[in-house]
Amino acid sequence: APDSLYQQLGGQTGITRIVEDMLLRAAADARIKQHFVEVDIVRVRDKLVEQLCELSGGPCIYSGDSMEESHTGLHISRSDFNALVELLQAAMDQQGVSVRAQNQLLAHLAPMRGEIIER
Ligand code: HEM
Fold it and tell me: Where does heme bind (predicted)?
């Protein structure tokens, strides 16, 4: 549907741009960049695109690890989580996504917080 969240994020192209922009911002952000130093960033990008595509109603099936598996041992704090959400919002602004659609996506991510945050 043209008004689906997936379409509002710009479909596959839009979601890919949003994820890449967010990861570039993360790699440059003093608050959280240390988390991304020794990471297969291409894999993280691909899995994240797949996950956001599926979550927003697009034609994808997430094939990555669970949020608990992929974040255990990374010691991600509440403020790390909030920092990444802020960068995701900036990336969606950059991509021209409406605040309403942004909040819809964030509402899908919020329940994952408990599996990602460690302390
Ligand atoms: C709702 C928020 C988040 C979502 C949806 C998310 C999603 C993902 C996904 C899909 C992967 C790849 C899983 C795989 O390899 O199969 C991943 C890995 C990773 N995430 Fe997140 N993530 C979130 C929050 C965060 C935060 C806040 C940080 C740190 C600031 C973070 C750091 C990482 C790192 C470092 C990896 C790679 C781990 C490895 O080396 O395998 N994530 N995340």
Answer: 71
